[in-house]
Amino acid sequence: MPLPHLIDYPAPLTDLPESQATWSLEPERAAVLVHDLQRYFLRPFAPGSPVVEAMLTHTAAILRAARSAGIPVLYTAQDGDQDPAERGLQGDLWGRGMRADPEHTAIVDEVAPTGSDTVLPKHRYSAFARSDLADRLGRAGRGQLVITGVYAHIGILATVFDAFQREVQPFVVADAVADFGAAEHRRALCQVASCCGVVTTTDDVLARFGRPADVDGVDETDPWDARIRAALGGLLAGDAIEELFARPDADAFELGLDSLRAFEFLDLLADEGLDVDFGEFTRTPTLDWLRRQARSVGV
């Protein structure tokens, strides 16, 4: 059975189902799971599909908030060229699956993991199947799981059922998941809400995580963050930029910035009104230091 082709629909977010569970999301108990956002699984969506654009934007916002709050971030990702015996019954329904090629296996750039995140090999529909996800959550004292990704009515729903049966409270982010179509998307949300989890939204998750990152992908905790992020665009890889904002004391040069790019970066900041000495920046090349410089000159 092949995956669908040219999936194109807006997320069904009007009149979200009311969750029977009344759990409240608690940052100190939560972890985030980015489910199967590999290139192979996003290929079936039409270019510019609104549900995918929203899912990736919202997932990225949740990731920034989680990393800033010290909340664990985990990913699932299947291997390519799986042995038929290893692939098991999934092969009967879906064929051989993805190739061992980054064009299939890579997690998409918009939500790529950073060095502090964990990527779990995916073996079956549920992220818990034949993985140490449950052990990782237990060791970290995390009894809640915020889930984004694809596909809502298959792997995400299986993971939610599995979490519930392991005494882990699952929260499915309605506007940060996608599916074969609007009907499947809504049916999955209704199933979760009726008996095994909480259906929530990106806005609610960000409010709980205590980070005012907006859903357009800009973190506005510090008024200069948007301008610094824009200046770094094209000079650093996307995952390196996310790492810098997740760890504001990280060394930008260790994340891939070099002297030539640093000159260009500081020129762009100067155009925005923040004049930074190159030598001083090289001695303390961190986001925290740049924020302090901006505050000290009142810009």
Identify the notable features of this structure and list them briefly.
299 residues; alpha/beta; Rossmann fold; Non-ribosomal Peptide Synthetase Peptidyl Carrier Protein, Chain A; 2 domains; six-stranded parallel sheet; 14 helices; 6 strands; 12% strand
What can you tell me about this protein's structure?
It comes from Nostocoides japonicum T1-X7. This is isochorismatase. Residues 31-204 form the Isochorismatase-like domain. Pathway: Siderophore biosynthesis. The chain has 299 residues and is of the alpha/beta class. The chain has helices at 39-42, 50-68, 84-87, 89-94, 102-105, 133-139, 152-165, 182-195, 202-209, 225-232, 238-246, 259-272, 278-283, 287-296, and strands at residues 30-35, 73-78, 118-122, 144-149, 169-177, 198-200. It has two domains: 27-209, Rossmann fold (3-Layer(aba) Sandwich), CATH 3.40.50.850; 223-297, Non-ribosomal Peptide Synthetase Peptidyl Carrier Protein, Chain A, CATH 1.10.1200. The protein is built from 14 helices and six strands. The model is unreliable at 212-221 (pLDDT under 50).
How much helical structure, as a percent, in the residues? 40-55%
Structural class by SSE content: alpha/beta
Number of strands: 6
CATH level 4 superfamily of the largest domain: Isochorismatase-like
Number of helices: 14
For the sheet with most strands, the description reads: 6 strands, parallel
Order of helices and strands: EHHEHHHEHEHEHEHHHHHH
The name of the CATH architecture of the largest domain is 3-Layer(aba) Sandwich
What's the shape? globular
Mean pLDDT: 88
Radius of gyration: 20 Å
CATH C-level label of the largest domain: Alpha Beta
Arrangement of strands in the largest sheet: 3-2-1-4-5-6
Beta strand %:
5-15%
CATH topology grouping of the largest domain: Rossmann fold
Point out poorly predicted stretches.
212-221
| CA distance, first residue to last residue | 57 Å
Number of domains: 2
